[in-house]
Amino acid sequence: MDVSLSLWLAVLGLIVGMLAVDLFAHRRAHVIGVREAAAWSAVWVAIGVGFGAWVWWAYGAELGQQYFAGYLIEKSLAVDNVFVWAIVFTFFAVPREYQHRVLFLGVLGALVLRGLFIAGGAALIASFGWVLYLFAAFLLVTGWRMLRQRDEHVDPARSRTLRLFRRFVPMTDAFHGQRFLIRRDGVLLATPLLAVLVLVEVTDVVFAVDSIPAIFAVTDEPFLVFTANAFAILGLRAMYFLLADLVHRFVYLKTGLALVLMWVGVKMLLKIDVYYIPTTVSLAVIATILGVSIWLSLRATRGQGRRALQAPTTPPFRVATQEELAALEPVRRRRRGTIDGPVRPAS
Which parts pass through the membrane (predicted)? Predict the structure, then answer.
């Protein structure tokens, strides 16, 4: 696949422009409702599908199908990521109007980290072909482990990341609006919102370790790997607000994701020395597994409406009072002279 530097820059410019539009549209902290989340989800999916259609038109059916297979894998794994975010936000009792900012920065960090992972993975595959065996084995083991642990959920209270963060970073016990840092009595402190952002970033790193090898099983084109990842990730924020209250209904989704990982692991193993499974077949298998798992989930939970996760009786953090907010000092200390005027020598 011949991709010019100008095309790479154009795609990166499109992604940056989309992030800017999203940031401008949500510049004020507010609770994002289902209707707004559904509208934004439709926009992001339309952009991702539209880009895939352009790849199909410009580079042919084979590469177009590879993009859509990768996009479908990333989008489906992202749903599981969304459910983990819902558990984290519920545990910390993060006010809904502050969640978008955390997710925006989390997605921004995810784009950078996944870009580095993809570049590293492509370099490894180009230099050491045997790495594909490790990727395939990793996908099979991860899929099998996910299948066995399909009824288990992440527990933020036992998070090592949170323990390390609280051990080494001075931290307040209250949310102070959308601030990640505050200064109180001359001391710079992290807010719980920064701890949540760190957990979101670490969670995405864990999911990237699964998803990057999985997408390399359906395409070895770095351009397609990156764009499928990017366009799938960009819609995560809207997807979260759309699906966060429906976690209880996707009871078989984790089983479907486990089977997808195992399928692409087998596909990668066969691709190395035995047989190349056509992308059309691979795309059909992935779509069927995910479609059936979602259909069975919704069928098994039909009649159940939206329901927020159960928050802890005693949340670990609270919301700062108006008096506490009013007493905050500027995070950046000003130099002497900027407030009281320049210091003059005594006469």
Answer: 6-25, 37-57, 77-95, 102-124, 130-147, 187-217, 223-243, 250-270, 276-298
Domain range holding 161?
36-326
Determine the Cα–Cα distance for residues 114 and 83; give it in Å rounded to an integer. 20
pLDDT of residue 338: 45
List Cβ neighbours of 200 (8 Å cut-off, separation of 6 or more): 85, 88, 102, 103, 106
For residue 278, count other CB atoms closer than 10 A to its CB.
11
**DSSP character at residue 171:** B
Q: What is the pLDDT of residues 108-119, one digit of tens each?
A: 888 888 888 888
Q: Is residue 338 part of a domain?
A: no
- Within the chain, strands assigned E span 174-175, 181-184, 187-190, 318-319
The average pLDDT across 118-134 equals 82
Q: For residue 187, what are the CA distances in angstroms to 163, 178, 325, 338?
A: 21, 19, 15, 20
Higher pLDDT, 112 or 336: 112
pLDDT of residue 152: 67
Kindly provide the b/e burial profile for residues 121-151, where b requires at least 16 CB atoms within 10 angstroms of the residue's own CB.
bbebbeeeeebbeebbebbbebbeebeeeee
DSSP lists the bridge partners of residue 187 as 184
Residue 116 exposed, middle or buried by CB count within 10 Å (0-12, 13-18, 19+)? exposed
How many helices and strands in the chain, by DSSP H and E?
12, 4
Please name the residue that has the structure tokens 């997807």. 239
Residue 134 domain flag: yes
Collapsing DSSP to helix, strand or coil, 342 comes out as coil
CA contacts within 13 A on the Cβ side of 20: 6
Question: Could you tell me if residue 23 is inside a domain?
Answer: no
When divided into structural domains, the chain yields a total of 1
Q: Which residues contact 282 (CB under 8 A, 6 or more apart)?
A: 69, 218, 263, 264, 267
Q: Are strands 187-190 and 181-184 parallel, antiparallel or unpaired?
A: antiparallel
- pTM of the full structure: 0.80
Domain contains 9? no
